[in-house]
Amino acid sequence: MSAPVRRFLILGLDGGTFDLLDPLMEAGELPFLRSMVNRGVRAPLTSVYPAKTIPAWYSFATGRDPGELGIYGFTEPTANPGESKLVSTFRPTEAMWDRLSRQGLKVGVMNFPLLTGYPLHGFIVPGMLSERSVTFPKELRAEVEGRLGGPYPAELPVARENDRASWLALATRNVVQRGESAALLAKRFQPDFLFSLFRETDRVEHQFWSEMERPVEEIPDDLRGFWRAVDSACQRVDGAFRAAGGPAVTLVVSDHGHGSIRSDFLTNRWLANEGLITFREGTDITGRNLIARIILWSQRLGLGRLLAKPVADVLRGGRAEGLSHLLSGATSFEEMAERIDWRRTIAYSYPVPEGIYLNLRNPELSPDRRDGVIREIRRRLEAYPDARIEVLEPRHIYRGANLRRAPEILIRVDEMRTEPRMDFAYPEPLIRERPEFFYGQGTHRMDGIMIGAGDGVARGADEGPLSLLDIAPTVFEGMGVTPPPGLSGRSFGRRLGLAA
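Above: the chain sequence. Below: its structure as tokens.
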């Protein structure tokens, strides 16, 4: 194939949201991103639901919705109750860079969640799903690490209250090194298409959202320094990519947005309370929550919060598993699955926390009963008095041949300000005083970001919302490549000023 009409760079800011970026840009903390907005186009970018990293980025990469991919979370069910396996790939569907590669265009992929790289016309440095994943070409990891003077950044470890300074310093260093690595490979390979993802943005937002939603001048210096590093890394990759010459477009996108989180909804606890999960005779789940009760009580008291934080760090780090079980017993769904009476249980939530599955092991749950059961579960959820619960049916929001792998229904609680969870850690389904020092301060929202600038991109005011599924067809149109048939999204090339 001849040279593309335009080269495309896509910078992924996991969890990026204008709610956070706009004040930082206005305050001059993010000069590169602000320059892109000033000379280009911006728009909210609506995610898929559940708005989780794996289904969202895989939908972005392929232009196919979760119903077509059969991917609804990080994991998917196995044949055994209480067991799941990691979602390892978006295949057999191809990503946009696969199609570009087959057309003879050189592509590069940095830090996309994959278990391993694979052959294409260009390079892949996987991220997230494997600590030491195999790159393509295989020798690329050694080359990158030689230039960095150490290992290519892995996923951030679990954050702990007592490790704030070192954890944020690591997050910032990871961002810098990811930018260096992407710039290095952009110069070496001169790809026609490059995707580079910064995962640390989402992790920092989860942990410190309450501090970042303050007025900019009140945001701690270490958090502002982190975002300045993100902005500089984006600028560095953009400069290296454009150095190869020719018309080029840069898109900054996120897989979903982010916002504050104050509450949790324990779906399986609710199902058990409603008699839809039945435990074996002799199983007691009412008195197994001592640690949970202590944590909820302690956060109401200043001294209690101070004492509970180091305890939470220990438990979160898994170093006191024996003590935790002694005081509170098994609480995860995986641990409780062996105590569930699967012959009588009607429904459960696992392994997608936003999903409720019918229990097909129940001999009385015949196919002709299932629709009625789903309607009754919907009625009870929508009538729940203490939270606003939306009930979504995958067949109504997705298309495709893999809906059979979806939960029967999906729930969205308090417009995603309350997070669904699958465990039995607390005595009641709804936790309105979420211990944020234990579970973090932020959670996902549907609206992510799209900022576009470059050759041929017309400067414009704020655009109306786009879909994450629109990115792939836009890239194909902008690069002059025929898209595959049946993509879920539509190109917004005309809104960028790219279409003929």
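The chain is about 40% helix and 15% strand.
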